[in-house]
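Record type: monomer structure entry
Structure origin: computed from sequence
Chain ID: A
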Amino acid sequence: MTTAAAATTFTPIAEIVINPETALVHEHGWQSWSPTTTYRVGEGPHRPSSDRRRVMGYRPDRVAPADAYQGEGLLVVEPGDGSPAHRFAVADPRGPIPSIRAEVRGARVLVCSDGPVRHDVCAAGPAVALAGWADELARNGGVAPGGLRPAPTMWCSWYGYWQAISDRVILDNVAEIERLGLPVDVVQIDDGYQAEIGDWLQTSPTFGSLRDLTAELRARGRRVGVWTAPFLVGERSQVAKAHPEWLVDDLDLGRHWGQRLFALDVTHPHAAAHLVATFEGFRELGVDVFKVDFVYAGAIDGRRHRAVSGLDAYHAGMQLIRGAIGEDAYLLGCGAPIIPSVGHVDAMRVSNDIAPHWEHEDGDLALGGGRGAVMTGAARAFQHGRLWVNDADCLMAVPAIERREVWAEHVRRCSGLRSTGDRLADLDEWGVEMTRELLASVPAATPFDGC
């Protein structure tokens, strides 16, 4: 893996007097899955369990210290002595995103950054500081006040079936949606339908016809959603084999799906045309809801056809996708760099993946599980209705889900996008009623009143 962390210089910004017994630090993670929370000073921050996990779930080009706090583009210090909170943040989602570090030194916190950030003193407290920052970031990112659309309700194939899906599996669950009377707008076809990572319009031999399936879903009154990882290309794909010049040539993203992964170079004109044609192809099939996943890959620095930063390439790629799907389509980001995505997406996954287990076996909160999803989703609740619609991830309500009642309550309080990810035939009575209730009570695309 060649995504080595960059060597950066941190410059002091402020030194804050604190009460070490009660002071708090809010550390904001880089992307959807990166742990985000408010720590008591002295509490150890969450860090990746390996270099591979840093690339996939944290900030690929930074190594955060284990003995200090580091927010990506946003960090808030609450002194804990009754004095105002201190917010350190960027205001432009299209600009560079510095890392902001807080080192505790007894009764003081030294705040440093590896790039320009603004320091604001917020007498109204940290909650108001976060909300005010999100409002400003939204304005600067072109998000019109009151212009966010409520998310459609969805059934997603991923958690019930993982990659073992087919057109028959999808239609069997549509039959269950109809039988149970669930208010599902969108049937989302997730990972497993595609021929390969990068070959999105070609289906796997076991899936069936994507064209026939989308036509059948629309005939039965459902909108169609599809999952892609548009900036990833697997080594087995036809894209990688036929067009190696379309890949960022010095960027090896490690292994997943049993193969090496590379990043699509959207600055190459033919790669850009391929990306546009892919999403126009989905629109021609009748797809109008798009979940774009693992999109952190498009924001990593590397040698591209044009000499641009990873962030500039990311913005260009997201603009190409939006142009291809149209303003009327619904775009959900996931595995996405948070701040740079403002203005690009309608909804955003704001935490790691949910899973049947509560705790991941190696303790890395970016890897999936209920504890990390609840923690980070609650910490980013202030973003809902300001930057986008928050997606806490699918409701999972079958009996095998550990602490399913806790997860359902988190979805109720903190998710503006309501989706179910179960094999619907496996739901018990409680699961059916909870799924029906949460799908029928989608919150407005306005800021939450407490989460």
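Annotation 1: Residues 87 and 120 are 5 Å apart (CA to CA).
Annotation 2: The chain has a mean pLDDT of 96.
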